[in-house]
């Protein structure tokens, strides 16, 4: 059986997503391969499909216990024998699974890196016919990554020495060019075997809301999306608790998740969210890694994340089914103080602290930019494009613009007159004409730009410098003391060859809109199918999205299949899903159609 047939018969998909076929061909050829694909881009199929075609075992290294269980449940639902071994199992269960794997009955084994470090477990692995080692969330191998896990590095040499000499596949969704270079070196992957499909998530509308009243905004948004699944991220536990209580006091049944809750409550809150018992969960960034819930329609960041990598990974938990989703960042500059405090209090070395400070600066500039938000993200990950996404808040921003060329030239001129040797704070104080920088050894008081913005507050000057940096007129150098430098774009403004326009700041009443049905499916039927899916999920103790994704249910609501062949044409329906659930879903669809016909007659 070829890979195309497996894709359709087992996974229920007619076509490969971008990059999948190329990665799978490399893997089937026994190559070492690196796949860089956006969250929701179909990374898991890249090792699950070859695992079916290989005669031996595929070892999946994953740091996330919750992801292991979801993946194994989903695979078993498709009649693909898979299991996991991790700390949730007692000794007897572990021994039983190991004997089962030795029998050759299992195609995929999920294990955490800490487990592989165990000498006895590694010795046992060496006796197995392992054809493929798949490393999920591979960015954690790199110290330049946003979630570095040293234990991942410790297993590379042992896995390289496996007697079966398996193929290797590393997968990640958030690799900057620096992280990519690191992974290639660590894993010894040839340049020809790097497959990048781009970081764009075309189905997610990125939005930044500046200066809104956060709690009322969140309440208004959640009420407008009451039948949709969403995640609200906050920076501190007390913020999570406050939002959670506020929503519940106003009639919203919400869950919460943070490290201050005991294990049992955290587990129950996560299960309630996965099983659609609550539609919205408020959480710190401890929540979501490995959550494979496909029908999350929105992610709200109540406080700004510390890095673009973290932000985009959390954003990627929305719209994993490919349907429209939104990601809203509620931005206030004061939120940056929390991150700066954590960086200063960290016990990390100075180089790592500087790296975190650089990443926070970039995140802040993203929040300040007026260019297309998706284009800004892509540029950060090294993907240069001049095309706008057309549906982010900046692309849709119809506020009037103000010409700020004159003020921009004052700032840019000051940077040049200070020989591009100083950072934002010092430049800002010179522009404001502060006495402490007027007469010291640097003689800034003699500059023609000293005090040129004396009627501005220091805060507004610094915000304007951030604006010019975020929009490409200035750049900041890396290092312990970041310096402001002019870009080519900034030099053109200074010479009078280009102008600068800025959107006017407006105070407005918050308005949020529900993501509307595009008219291609029957919404009433969709809701009935959701209820049937939930009943089955409860009976089998599985999250509803493991039964069918929302995308599959919408496709059913559009195609309304009445027999097995028509049901197989639904997106995400393979032979195993047809055999397990086809009859019940087809029967419901037939009943619904008969009811509709009776109403018409």
UniProtKB/TrEMBL annotation:
Residues of the Helicase C-terminal domain: 214-364
Cofactors (names): Zn(2+); Mg(2+)
GO BP annotation list: DNA recombination; DNA repair; DNA replication; SOS response
Keywords: ATP-binding, DNA damage, DNA recombination, DNA repair, DNA-binding, Helicase, Hydrolase, Isomerase, Metal-binding, Nucleotide-binding, Zinc
Domain HRDC: 519-599
UniProt catalytic activity: Couples ATP hydrolysis with the unwinding of duplex DNA by translocating in the 3'-5' direction
Top-tier EC class: isomerase
Record has Transit peptide as a keyword: no
Pfam families the record matches: DEAD, Helicase_C, HRDC, RecQ_Zn_bind, RQC
Record's protein name: DNA helicase RecQ
């Amino acid at each position: 059986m070829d890979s195309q047939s497996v894709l359709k018969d087992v996974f229920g998909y007619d076509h490969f997503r971008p990059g999948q076929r190329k990665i799978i061909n490399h893997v089937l050829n026994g190559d070492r391969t690196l796949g860089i694909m956006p969250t929701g881009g179909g990374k898991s199929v890249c090792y699950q499909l070859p695992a079916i075609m290989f005669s031996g075992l595929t070892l999946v290294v994953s740091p996330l216990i919750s992801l292991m269980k979801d993946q194994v449940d989903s695979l078993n639902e498709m009649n693909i024998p898979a299991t996991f071994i991790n700390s949730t199992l007692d000794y007897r269960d572990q021994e039983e699974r190991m004997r089962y794997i030795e029998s050759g009955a299992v195609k995929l084994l999920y294990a955490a890196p800490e487990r592989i470090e165990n000498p006895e477990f590694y010795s046992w692995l060496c006796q197995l016919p392992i054809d493929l080692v798949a490393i999920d969330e591979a960015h954690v191998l790199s110290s330049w990554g946003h979630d570095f896990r040293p234990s991942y590095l410790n297993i590379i040499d042992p896995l390289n020495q496996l007697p079966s000499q398996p193929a290797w596949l590393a997968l990640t969704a958030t690799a900057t060019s620096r992280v990519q270079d690191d992974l290639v070196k660590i894993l010894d992957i040839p340049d020809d075997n790097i497959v990048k499909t781009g970081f764009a998530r075309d189905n997610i509308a990125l939005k930044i809301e500046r200066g809104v009243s956060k709690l009322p905004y969140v309440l208004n948004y959640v009420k407008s999306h009451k039948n949709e699944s969403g995640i609200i991220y906050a920076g501190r536990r007390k913020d999570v608790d406050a939002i959670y209580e506020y929503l519940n006091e106003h009639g919203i049944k919400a869950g919460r998740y943070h490290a201050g809750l005991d294990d049992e409550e955290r587990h129950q809150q996560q299960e309630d969210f996965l099983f659609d018992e609550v539609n919205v969960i408020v959480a710190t960034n401890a929540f979501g890694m490995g959550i494979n819930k496909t029908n999350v329609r929105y992610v709200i960041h109540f406080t700004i994340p510390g890095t673009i990598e973290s932000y985009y990974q959390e954003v990627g938990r929305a719209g994993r089914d490919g349907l429209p989703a939104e990601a809203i960042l509620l931005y206030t500059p004061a939120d940056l103080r929390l991150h700066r405090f954590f960086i200063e209090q960290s016990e990390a070395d100075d180089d790592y602290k500087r790296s975190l400070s650089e990443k926070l600066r970039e995140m802040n500039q993203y929040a300040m930019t007026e260019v297309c938000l998706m284009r800004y993200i892509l540029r950060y990950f090294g993907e240069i494009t001049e095309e706008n996404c057309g549906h982010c808040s900046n692309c849709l921003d119809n506020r009037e613009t103000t010409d700020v060329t004159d003020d921009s030239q004052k700032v840019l001129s000051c940077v040049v007159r200070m020989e591009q040797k100083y950072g934002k704070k010092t430049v800002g104080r010179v522009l404001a004409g502060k006495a402490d920088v007027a007469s010291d050894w640097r003689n800034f008081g003699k500059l023609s730009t000293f005090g040129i913005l004396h009627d501005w507050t220091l805060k507004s000057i610094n915000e304007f410098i951030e604006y010019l940096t975020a929009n490409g007129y200035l750049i900041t150098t890396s290092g312990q003391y970041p310096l402001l430098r002019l870009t080519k774009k900034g030099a053109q403004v200074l010479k009078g060859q280009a102008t600068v326009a800025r959107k006017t700041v407006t105070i407005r009443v918050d308005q949020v809109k529900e993501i509307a049905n595009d008219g291609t499916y029957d919404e009433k039927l969709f809701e009935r199918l959701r209820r049937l899916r939930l009943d089955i999920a409860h009976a089998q103790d599985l999250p509803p999205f493991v039964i069918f994704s929302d995308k599959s249910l919408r496709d059913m609501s559009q195609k309304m299949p009445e027999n097995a062949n028509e049901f197989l044409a639904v997106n995400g329906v393979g032979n195993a899903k047809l055999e397990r659930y086809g009859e019940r879903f087809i029967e419901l669809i037939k009943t619904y159609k008969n009811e509709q016909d009776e109403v018409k007659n």
